[in-house]
Amino acid sequence: MKKLLSFLLLTLFAASLTAQNTNKFFKSNHIKRTMNKAAYWQLKNPKHELYDWTNGAFYAGVFAAWETTGKKRLWNAMIDMGEANEWKPGPRLQHADDHAICQTYIDLYRVEKDQKMIEPFRKTVDEMIATPYKTGEIRPITWWWCDALFMAPPALVKLGVTLDEPKYLEFSDKLFRETYDLLFDKEENLYARDMMYQTNWKEPKTEANGEKIFWSRGNGWVMGGLVRVLDELPADYENRAFYEDQFLKMAERIKSLQQDDGLWRASLLDPKSYPGGEASGSGFFTYALAWGVNNGLLEKSEYQPVVEKAWIGLNGLIQPDGHVGWTQPIGADPRANFTNDSWEVYGTGAFLLAGSEVIKMDW
């Protein structure tokens, strides 16, 4: 009996310590410190051209971290980035990847009111609207891959809202709906990465367990893009319901695919083939679900526990030096291997975006 009592007391004590250790992750000071640590490490370890899509995701997170922590160092880093880029998008006129960085330009413009920060992007979009897109076999539309829905729509919608120019919102609506019609699987409520990952493609691809291939990061970027669009659109915008409906359906599906450690695997429907929790997809899902709770689109009692588990899991990916480990490298599907030493700037961006919403929740 004494042994049983001792075991129960030890179990309760261990559970108490675990609760104490995880509770710290939700304290405001801890969230800010961790966000700054991750951002500072990444700024010291740059990668890719500053206008690149990877940095588009990173600096979106840096702006969110600056809003959250108010650190001047983060603000200066964004201004330096914009100046180095001459406030231009990437060189490809119609490629969504080259528009992602412009999200941060517009966010900075809203504070500074300096026209040079947005004028190059406005001119690019006007030229893009006037220039027909050249299609191909797997590129029948402008935004033919699902990640594009994070890259370009938030930038276009931010531009339209900022300048009170409906044409930019309408253009984004048109291209977004084309991607939805092409890639959204209404049975799974998930996006295929591109046409080659659909079951009706001439050479169908499946996971080892026979399931369809749905990439965690690709769907994470879609959900991140959806909430960044929804965060901008007026409540009475005529097409807002289109985006809300997608977000709600995807949120429910993503919730069902969360693993025991709170994270999501590189392949959403075959987690056993990719056992490690992946930082960038998990970070974007956490960001999107937390935003949904904070903005009243998702039921708090149902989704806040999902966010809680996810945020604890994400904190476990932060390495002692501050870098966000377990980030899958650049690719187009779940197959690329990654470890605790694997990092990419977009993994940090996703973590910073997640923290910026988690800190707003009522813990």
Describe the structure.
- The protein has 363 residues and is mostly helical.
- The chain has one domain: Glycosyltransferase, CATH 1.50.10.
- It is built from 14 helices and two strands.
- It has a two-stranded antiparallel sheet.
- Strand 1 and strand 2 (190-191) form a beta hairpin.
- The protein is globular, with a radius of gyration of 21 Å.
- Residues 1-18 have low confidence and may be disordered.
Please outline what is shown here:
This is Glycosyl hydrolase family 88. With about 375 residues, this protein is mainly alpha-helical.
What's the SSE blueprint?
Layout: H1 2-23, H2 28-44, H3 53-69, H4 72-84, H5 102-112, H6 119-130, H7 148-151, H8 153-163, H9 166-183, E1 184-185, E2 190-191, H10 216-230, H11 240-256, H12 279-294, H13 300-315, H14 345-358
Antiparallel strand pairs: 1-2
Protein name: Glycosyl hydrolase family 88
GO molecular function: hydrolase activity
Keywords: Hydrolase, Signal
Give the count of helical stretches. Answer: 14
Dominant shape: globular
* Assigned CATH class: Mainly Alpha
How helix-rich are the residues, as a percent range?
55-70%
Features of this protein?
363 residues, mainly alpha, Glycosyltransferase, 14 helices, 2 strands, 56% helix, 1% strand, signal, 6-hairpin_glycosidase_sf, 6hp_glycosidase-like_sf
